[in-house]
Amino acid sequence: MKMKTDKLLIELKKAVDAVEIVDAHAHNIVPIDTDYPFLKLFSDATGDALYNTPHTLNFKRGLRELTELYGPSLSLSLGLHTVQETRRSLGLEQSAITCFRAARIYTVLIDDGIELDKMVDIEWHKKVVPMVGRILRVEHLAEKILDKGSDGATWTLDSFMEIFTKELKLYPLDFQSTFSYLFHTVADKVVAFKSMVACRSGLAINTEVTKSEAEEGLSDVLCAGSPLRISNKSFIDYIFMHALEVAQSYDLPMQIHMGFGDKDFDMMLANPLYLHNLLEDKRFTDSRLVLLHASYPFSKEASHLASAYPQVYLDFGFAIPKLSFHGMISSVKELLKLAPMNKVMFSTDAVAFAEAFYLGAKRAREVIFSVLRDAMVEGDLSITKAVAAVKDIFAENAKKLYKLHKLDDSSKDSDEPHISSPFMKEELHGSVKYSSTESDVEPHVSSSFQNEELNGSSKDVTLVRLIWIDASGQHRCRGVPRQRFYSFVKKHGIGLPRACMGISSVSDSPVEDTNLTCSGLITIVPDLSTKCRIPWAKQQEMVLADMRTKSGEAWNYCPREALRRVSQILKDEFGLVMTAGFEVEFYLLESVIKNDKEEFESSDKWRKCHTTAFDMASPMLEEMLTYLQSLNISVDYLHKEAGKGQFEIGLEYTDCFGAADRLIYTREVIRTVGRKYGYHPTFLPKYSLDEYGCGSSVHISLSKNGINVFKASDGSSQYGISKIGEAFMSGVLDHLPSVLAFTAPHPTSYERLYSKEWNGRFVTWQKENTYAKISTCTLPGAVVVSHFVCPAFDACTNPYLGLASIMTAGIDGLRKKLSLPSPVDRETRDVNQEDYRRLPDCLTDSLNALEEDMLFNDMMGENFVVCLKAIRKVAGPFSLALAEIDHYCEDEEPYKDLIYKF
């Protein structure tokens, strides 16, 4: 369906726009007052030909994009002058930061072998981009050595090669050498060598070039006079072979300039197929060759080599943005016809101006989106694979090939938290302060959810998200600019229609019988104890919100207030605090287009606790864990669940209010990280009849003055449960049919609860059976019970309301001093049905039970309960059972919408 295809393309576009870039090949920036012509930003023409550049389409497009970059106040009609004046007013550093920030480039690898007027050194670039590495151009090194001379003595091949080889070997070790004063005084971090052999003498490299041939070639070079330019084929081949040996020994890639060359150069000699002899040479099978510039105009040949030889990699810098848009797309498509996508990388090949980095990155995103979009439409790629390709091409492939983790010194010899994505480095890591939509950064932390010592100032915050969970269990938010939040909203909140709590999972229109309409406003006020920096959007914060009336009183329909009110009753009457810990189950689905319709497929084929599935998902799970830990959310475990593509994260116990807060943030983390890795995470209780259900089983206990009082004080108790614990759990069991209206509030909840893997349609409890509706749990090695678990709790539940309903039922048990019936020690589907009350078979039955149970009206408010029942009733007939959904509405596919909503 076109609409579904459009959704996937929007998802791809978001991934392309958000990805942080490794620019794997570029050159030094020059200062504002350089004599290097700014027109060179748009063309490689020289002399009088350069002054025709303003008449090219590339110039006109680039000028428009730079005008937009530097601000809407700039006038396009004033031409290039207005951009240049803006650069001067900002200064070199600030204008460069603007460009790199907009380009979302966080690592640049610089070949400083082009000597430009007044160019800044590599170290300077660290002021404007977080990580910088050096690419050593071998011919430039050789020319510098020869230019320096041998103190009056005549150069011989042996004397030259001794120094040349020594220099090559010193750079990978980051040492300063005897010739260091010829270069920039920087602790060079060489991540690759680079050769200009293609445009000097061609790629038909003589791998068996003799020493005498090289000696003769050196003589020709020296006789040509100064300034030296190495162009003799034998000598170039000789130094290339030796440089490649050094690169291979230090596990460094060798970049090879391809395609474009000097005007007098025979382009046919740059055909990468000429590399055949080198690639077949057994001495260099462990080398890694990077063919730059998409090998244009030999992209097809380069693609073949990358597919045929493991040591060949491709980089499409310079082809973007110097070619026409059609030419750029055509070139990249040629590369991807045969080349594995994990061997293709991006670079800007930017020279002299930070604006070149920006334009290169901007157009590369447009080109890659266009290429991958076509691949998706043609059925070559799923959305998952396309998103993965985006990350590989723009960053991951380069990170692995150039071993860029060695550039990150942020965690060495320091007590500071490790930062792997430098977009969020603060002043203690340099002057760069970037934000990241989706990054691998150890997040900043603040408030009770985060460590104050790592939080720092909120001055760089741009936006604060106020989050609430509606009655249907959906996560909602509103964003407020920082200044507005801290000057007004922090104290007074923002207004919402009363209907915000009268919405179902069917639509965003208020349900009629809730008595909540769009007329009238309530206020959502941030609970500042939950405010924290968002791990994946570093210049934003998020905070959970309470709902109040305009007069400032707690609103009767506020879920957080409902839990707060019932918790206070438990505290006042019995001196108890209910603690909770959630199991968070979720599926990672892949969205694919089949017959022009969107379908969801599982992301793996393995079942519960399978090591292969866990290993494949480990990078993603580690990132989730990092984000959760940064939010002070403690995790007990992570594992592969029984469903294909299903996982579970177990959260640590805390007070029930904190448990609900942490569950909400945990789901936000899972959704974000899952999307980052190209999956669609869903918590829907039952997304497929053929797969296991997905729940948020809640573990419940009671404490008094910080001590667990649910368990018996000794082993004398019949069930290992204290009298208090038994009464509380008995109340939950007694009211379980009504509780399900809160904790299993959607028709899909019952598809999960009564699927084949579950036990029980009766009001019973069991020991140590996680599939029972209520089960006690004992810690390893213990005799007494520590807590009980309610698996009938899922993501369609508002967690505050679900916990409030369990607590309400437990309080009734405490008041009545109820005792537990005997546990059922066998599968409840085998019990005598006449001995037990039957649990609701569907949502309608649960609502009927709630209708007859007045306890919840008294404890949680009659109007609120009426509202919730109305919302549940609307969800039922709309969603229907899974088996009936195709019959219900084939075009709208409402069930798939639930996967997106939950």
TrEMBL record:
<dbReference type="InterPro" id="IPR006680">
    <property type="entry name" value="Amidohydro-rel"/>
</dbReference>
<dbReference type="InterPro" id="IPR008146">
    <property type="entry name" value="Gln_synth_cat_dom"/>
</dbReference>
<feature type="domain" description="GS catalytic">
    <location>
        <begin position="559"/>
        <end position="902"/>
    </location>
</feature>
<dbReference type="GO" id="GO:0006542">
    <property type="term" value="P:glutamine biosynthetic process"/>
</dbReference>
<dbReference type="Pfam" id="PF04909">
    <property type="entry name" value="Amidohydro_2"/>
</dbReference>
<dbReference type="InterPro" id="IPR014746">
    <property type="entry name" value="Gln_synth/guanido_kin_cat_dom"/>
</dbReference>
<dbReference type="GO" id="GO:0016787">
    <property type="term" value="F:hydrolase activity"/>
</dbReference>
<dbReference type="Pfam" id="PF00120">
    <property type="entry name" value="Gln-synt_C"/>
</dbReference>
<dbReference type="GO" id="GO:0004356">
    <property type="term" value="F:glutamine synthetase activity"/>
</dbReference>
<protein>
    <recommendedName>
        <fullName>GS catalytic domain-containing protein</fullName>
    </recommendedName>
</protein>
<dbReference type="InterPro" id="IPR036651">
    <property type="entry name" value="Gln_synt_N_sf"/>
</dbReference>
<comment type="similarity">
    <text>Belongs to the glutamine synthetase family.</text>
</comment>
<dbReference type="InterPro" id="IPR032466">
    <property type="entry name" value="Metal_Hydrolase"/>
</dbReference>
